[in-house]
Design a protein that fits this description.
- By secondary structure, the chain is mostly helical.
- The protein has one domain.
- Helices cover 76% and strands 0% of the residues.
- The longest helix has 24 residues.
- It starts with a helix and ends with a helix.
Length: 88
């Protein structure tokens, strides 16, 4: 059980880092064509696009990444609660 919780925590942490790097890279268009950023886009854009469809940008401000971070944290918390309650 502890191993499963650690794996989920690590996955969520790494994915949040990837999301953060993807969001920051969007401010620098010259980085968008690098292989590393193309990999980040491939991994994170499908998840971000879910929230972009739900919350359209307000002018230059895109609030969907904040909601995406929040949803990922809710998933992590709910998963932990389920796993702990199953293995009591």
């Amino acid at each position: 059980m502890i191993l499963l919780l650690k794996v989920v925590d690590t996955f969520v942490f790494v994915y949040m880092l990837m999301l953060f790097a993807r969001i920051v890279s969007s401010w620098f268009p010259e980085f968008q064509r690098t292989q590393w950023m193309m990999f980040l886009s491939f991994c994170t854009d499908p998840y971000l696009n879910i929230f972009r469809r739900l919350i359209p940008p307000l002018g230059m401000l895109d609030l969907s990444p904040m909601v995406a971070f929040f949803a990922l944290q809710i998933f992590q918390y709910a998963f932990k609660l389920i796993i702990v309650s199953l293995f009591r």
